[in-house]
Amino acid sequence: MEETEPVRDGHNLREKAYDRFTHHLLARDIRPGQFISQRQLVSLTGLSLGAIRELVPRLESEGLIKTVPQRGMQVAHVDLSLIRDAFQFRLFIEREAIAIFTAEASNSILAKLRREHESVLAESTAHDKGVTVELVDRAQAVDWNLHWTIISSLGNAIIADAYRVNSIKVRLIRQEQTLLSDVLVLPVMKEHLTIIEAIETRDPSRAVAAMDAHINSARARALGLR
User: Is Cell membrane one of the keywords (predicted)?
Assistant: First the structure.
């Protein structure tokens, strides 16, 4: 029966349920503000009702869903408050993280980050190919990897987990604005290279300023100001 998974597999099952939920959320199979039932989540994830029932408290604690009296569960609704809070969180965390990263990151890590960005930038300006769907996907991965490399370098599991949850919310915010598109690949890669150049100077204040400019630019796109 679908609700009788062995207890020893409980942790893995809960993680699988969480991963599948967030995958469908970011793939826009589930939309911000949408009402959804536990049975619908069972159908969507292919997991048991028991697994979904264990998942719900975690999603509620992370602010990814909320229970609305007499209406059921609602996926996080994107509004100005969420945009303000999510980007303010990024600024607080990433300012400190990049200051430490600038002082401690190895030259090899910086060289790798630079190569990844320059490769995307070079391909995006190639006249014979232009910006393909595949390049947009690669650019998005390079984009997220820069930020995650900086955060994970802290070696702080509490910060990493909080940042991960916030990054899910950021990706929900007007996805067509905050996710990369063919138009945004070039300017975003240039913003990132400015950040990398600042880190390479080993001047924390310069790196913080570059990160501030980048995050504020992303927030402006989320607000429809750019």
Answer: no
Bridge partners for 36 per DSSP = 73
For the chain, the three-class secondary structure string (H helix, E strand, C coil) is: CCCCCCHHHHHHHHHHHHHHHHHHHHCCCCCCCCEECHHHHHHHHCCCHHHHHHHHHHHHHCCCEEEECCCEEEECCCCHHHHHHHHHHHHHHHHHHHHHHHHHCCHHHHHHHHHHHHHHHHHHCCCCCCCCHHHHHHHHHHHHHHHHHHHHCCCCHHHHHHHHHHHHHHHHCCHHHHCCCCCCHHHHHHHHHHHHHHHHCCCHHHHHHHHHHHHHHHHHHHCCCC
Alpha-carbon distance of 15 to 26, in angstroms, equals 16
Query: pTM, whole model, 2 decimals?
Result: 0.82
Do both 161 and 177 map to the same domain? yes
**Pair (161, 119) in one structural domain:** yes
Give me the residue label for tokens 């393909």: 132
Read off the amino acid at residue 216.
N
Structural domain tally of the chain?
Answer: 2
pLDDT in tens, 56-113: 999 999 999 998 888 889 998 888 899 999 999 999 999 999 999 999 999 999 999 9
Q: Residue 50 is part of which domain span?
A: 7-75
